[in-house]
Predict the 3D structure of the following.
Amino acid sequence: MNRRLRTFLAATAIGLLAGCASQPTATEAPGPPPTVRAAPDAAMAERVKAAFLHGWNGYRQYAWGHDVLLPLSKQPRDWYGESLLMTPVDALDTMLVMGLDKEADDARRLIDTQLSFDRDVDVKHFEIVIRLLGGLLSSYQMTGDPKLLALADDLGARLLPAFDSPTGLPYVYVNLRTGKAHGTDTNPAEAGTLLLEYGTLSRLTGKPVYYEKAKRALVETYKRRSKIGLVGERFDVDTGKWTSTSSHIGARIDSYYEYLWKCWLLFGDRDCLRMWQESIAAANRYLPEEVDGKLWYGQVDMDTGARTGHEYGALDAFMPGLLAYSGDVARGARLEDSSFAMWQAHGIEPEAWDYRKGEVTAAAYPLRPEIVESAWYLYRATGDAKWRDMGRTMFDDFVRYTRTDAGYAALKSVVTKEKADDMESFVLAETFKYYYLLYAGSGALGRGIVVLNTEAHPLRPVP
Ligand code: DMJ
């Protein structure tokens, strides 16, 4: 960890100790289990760091200044035809956490001098919030660089028109220059995974509007839960009516659950705690299924709770970590064991897996982080070496099957291991960060309360 980050974190911790933040304490309400003190596994941490640098250096060499690197063709790609620096913004705090000071300084200079949001492009609101807004805010909190906060505030202001709908639920796309918003087919994850970022922006800028809009979207999502407490997979922004009543913890719903818990932790917002407690109780009641002694979470109808499917996959694999982080370590551990069994079936995890049949149903692997994120939460809650061992197996597989000359390539199929010309920015933001945290020891994120957003950007309470 660099000196600047250490000083900043120490100051934050002092603020918290002095009682400046309204954070939950053990006596007043539930919090995460205490982090077990763990020494670093220095050799593994160094391996992860070196592997991260291989990907970052590939981006530098072939895609510098663009959104992402295409790791097979060694070409750059921009999401919207012009660059919003997705990879540097997403990766900057990983470099800060890893103590890669020179690389972090280079990335920060690029962002400070080149990043502009005054662009006539229709962006995906949710992705820009979790990756760019989250990345700018966490890096600001770690470096104190005022340009990063100014960029975050400018971005937040340009994104706000997304919330101007009859329901307060955000439209899917918004134009960064004109503010024109559109796209009514949304879901709980996209509507409910915004408050950590907008809330932190609110606290840092003193502008309540950011917190209010994002919280309303979260509450409007929750209000649409069924009588048995479940949410569906899709709803319409204008009418607020469900268009798919499939309920599960996978794509389109996943991080809605995550933010209910984490927004309580970061902001001490009791509405979030209440919504979390009711929602996770319903999920734990209706979604789990036992097959051959293993625990899985599948699909049910949100109104009746009737079973409609038996699929689990790479995205669902965040839930073991969330369960552990919210105190349900035993259930989290069982579900992580199942996730790992899914990983081991082909030496790397598929996007979807029919756990009753033991078959891959969607074979791609886009280099997702969730399963290692869960291993880290379980390790920090228990200190059990089993989770580091599991992580080592997954890391070895990850490198073996996805490394290319220039970086890491998604897999078209975990069965054939055929590669795709794609390396999402979350690989450097999340996947390598979670591997690093698993081995770096309990001090890696500094002292005080730190809550990671769904893109693994560490956010701290604002005193
Ligand atoms: C990331 O962008 C975030 O973790 C999001 O919540 C889900 N998808 C990817 C990683 O798989």
Observations:
- The longest strand covers residues 288-291.
- The pocket of 1-deoxymannojirimycin is lined by residues 130, 255, 368-370, 426, 430, 454-455 (CB under 6 Å).
- The CA atoms of residues 120 and 178 lie 7 Å apart.
- The two ends are 23 Å apart (CA to CA).
